[in-house]
Amino acid sequence: MKHIDIKKLFDGSLVGQKVTVCGWIRTCRDSKNMAFLEINDGTSLKHLQVVIDKSVTTGYENCTALGSAIKAEGTLVKAVSGNGVEVNASNVTLLGDCPPDYPMQKKRHTMEYLRTIPHLRVRTNTFNAMLRVRSVLSYAIHRYFQENGYVYVHTPIITGSDCEGAGEIFRVTTHNWNDTAKTQKEYYDNDFFGQKAGLTVSGQLEGEMAAMAMGKIYTFGPTFRAENSNTTRHAAEFWQIEPEVAFAELDDIIEIAEELIKYIINAVLTECADEIAFFDERFEKGLTEKLRRVVESEFKVLDYTEAVEILKKSGKEFVYPVEWGCDLQTEHERYITEEVFNKPVFVTNYPKDIKSFYMKQNPDGKTVAATDLLVPGIGEIIGCSEREVDTEKLIAVMEERHMTVSEYENYMALRKFGACPHSGFGLGLERILLYVTGLGNIRDVQLFPRTVGDLK
Ligand code: 4AD
Ligand code: MG
After folding, report:
1. Please, are residues 96 and 26 in contact by the beta-carbon 8 Å criterion?
2. Atom of ligand 1 nearest to the CA of 384
3. Ligand 2: distance of its center to the CA of 285 in Å?
4. What is each CA distance from 364 to 351, 352, 361, in whole angstroms?
5. Ligand 1 centre from 171 Cα, in Å?
6. In terms of C-beta density within 10 A (0-12 exposed, 13-18 middle, 19 or more buried), how is residue 81 classed?
7. CB–CB of 248/208 below 8 Å?
8. Cα of 145 to ligand 2 centre, how many Å?
9. Which atom of ligand 1 is nearest to the CA of 442?
């Protein structure tokens, strides 16, 4: 169907010309002689007004119901009020009617209500804006890595190993519910892969293998975690960006992470100005200013031990008390990044017992060369570390954690054949999206969120 994207009309260059536009009716004012339809085709956050003069326009009779899909042909003119444009329609065609039981009749619905209709909520301004920011952000991430010489690799989604060692793997099986096996071994031997398999929680381990040949790689794909945490920050399926860099130590990878975050925020500020202005007005006052400040600021680097001291001296009553050795909870992370520094903070050198097995052990024997990037309002958006390349140390940690070393044979081989210092991180796409949009719940930055007990 020949038509033009609504977005292309707003710069006014086509004023005076005949245009054909398509879209869904967002608002309708209908009077005796005239009708005014605002339509949106998804190419822009702004709607286009279609003016119907009932003595001139043909085909308009059934084209006023909210949510209907229509096509309008007419002349693009300067808007009668304001400085925009509108279409004086000569003809309107109904493409798809929308009966009154359309679940989005109201001007504003609550986010909770919209979560019950994920197939339709995409047609709201909020989801229109969120999806465009998500798309622009994703493209900017690719651009950053491509411009800086990284190779995009696709790591497997089905995997036999648990990268984070946290036992949060969704199982992949072709067994039926009533299959029986006498032993665990028999159960897995008879399954599709002849061994235990699951959905990846992270592409890191395979990413490391690629980096040991290609130097600088990144992954960008879905990861899965069967975490039973019903929070506004956790999804069972989320997208992760995982660069892995050979010959990089912790300081080097921290620099890369900071540069990436600034690059992508800057891209969103310039390419999604309308969307960010919308979120600023509706969801987080001062959002634009906050993002500008992040691009210009220098992120704080803070040692975990120092962070614990700050928290203990804060005089705040935390739900989870703080002691050296404890994992930082969201309340602690937010205190540090919101109340103390009011900017992104890299917390470094965490106690080794609360972090993943693959992290490089520091000479103190107690901490690892790892960092989390914390941001105000959210907490952790990046998990990062230099990797342990000393086989003995690695095996010792894996045994301490009762991991089956033989399942990581290929990973261990990297330490044997031409090992080198290397580092990487994982950025959660949805977490950074929450940060740049000001939206408060991970369920609202995904098209179809998957969370515990909820699969629509
Ligand atoms: O800190 P995590 O667990 O680190 C890793 O997976 C490493 N293998 C990354 C690496 O070094 N290559 O997860 C990385 C990021 C977190 O900082 C967070 O932004 C996001 O992934 N994340 C989640 N996002 C949404 N829902 C969840 N359940 C998440 N779990 C982690
Ligand atoms: Mg983490």
Report:
1. no
2. 11
3. 28
4. 10, 10, 8
5. 19
6. exposed
7. no
8. 22
9. 25
Q: Is the CB of 382 under 6 A from ligand 1?
A: yes
Supply the DSSP string of 68-123, one letter for each residue. -EEEEEEEEEE-SSSSSEEEEEEEEEEEE---TT-TT-SS---HHHHHT-TTTGGG
Q: If residue 329 lies in a helix (H) or strand (E), which one and from where to where?
A: none
446 pocket-lining for ligand 1 (C-beta < 6 Å)? no
Return the SS3 of 303: strand
**What gap in Å lies between CA 227 and CA 223, rounded to an integer?**
12
Residues near ligand 2 ion, CB 5 Å cutoff: 383
Q: Ligand nearest 220 Cα, by number?
A: 1
Q: What is the mean pLDDT of each run of 10 residues along the chain (456 residues)?
A: 96 97 96 96 96 96 94 96 94 96 90 96 97 98 98 97 84 91 93 95 97 98 93 96 98 98 98 98 98 97 98 94 95 95 97 96 97 96 98 95 91 94 98 98 97 91
The finding on whether 235 has its CB within 6 A of some atom of ligand 1 is yes
The verdict on pTM exceeding 0.90 is yes
| Encoded amino acid at 88, one letter | N
Q: 3-state class of 394 per DSSP?
A: helix
Token pair of 34, please?
Answer: 């005239």
Long-range contacts at 225-230 (CB < 8 A, ≥ 24 apart): 225/166, 225/168, 225/170, 225/201, 226/168, 226/169, 226/170, 227/168, 227/452, 228/452, 229/452, 230/451, 230/452, 230/453
- Ligand 1 atom nearest to 201, measured from its CA: 6
Cα distance between residue 231 and residue 183, in whole Å: 36
Taking CA atoms only, the protein residue closest to ligand 1 atom 4 is 383
- Strand-pairing partners, residue 220, are 241
